Amino acid sequence: TLVFSKDFSVAHPSIGVCFPHKNKSTMSGSSNLAAMKKIVQQLRFEASINRLKVSQAAADLQQFCIQNAVQDPLLTGVSSSTNPFRPQKVCSFL
């Protein structure tokens, strides 16, 4: 997204370009044009990204979790024979 400050400068944070709107003394015309082209290119790229509705993404995530629940050790637990973090048995001599 573009960010406008009080002095009417324009910034695009995702590509790190900032240039003044009316003050031409700080930037030459060619570098100003190059910065504008870079911003337009980035904005076109961002506009071309396919987006999902949040409801569709949530439904897909829920379906994925349900399909993979049988393989999730947090839900099914880990058998003591395959658990590398089980407490070690202590041997003691009497």
From TrEMBL:
GO CC terms in record: heterotrimeric G-protein complex
Any Pfam family matching the protein: G-gamma
Database matches in CDD domains: GGL (cd00068)
UniProt xrefs under Gene3D superfamilies: Transducin (heterotrimeric G protein), gamma chain (4.10.260.10)
Subcellular location, record wording: Cell membrane
GO molecular function: G-protein beta-subunit binding
Any one of the GO BP annotations: G protein-coupled receptor signaling pathway
Keywords, comma-separated and alphabetical: Cell membrane, Lipoprotein, Membrane, Methylation, Prenylation, Transducer
InterPro entries: G-protein_gamma, G-protein_gamma-like_dom, GGL_sf
Record keyword Transmembrane helix present: no
Topological type in the membrane: Lipid-anchor
SUPFAM superfamilies, A to Z: Transducin (heterotrimeric G protein), gamma chain
Domain G protein gamma residues, every copy: 29-94
UniProt similarity note: Belongs to the G protein gamma family.
Function: Guanine nucleotide-binding proteins (G proteins) are involved as a modulator or transducer in various transmembrane signaling systems. The beta and gamma chains are required for the GTPase activity, for replacement of GDP by GTP, and for G protein-effector interaction.
Subunit-structure text: G proteins are composed of 3 units; alpha, beta and gamma.
Protein name: Guanine nucleotide-binding protein subunit gamma
Species of provenance: Monopterus albus
Organism taxonomic ancestry: Eukaryota, Metazoa, Chordata, Craniata, Vertebrata
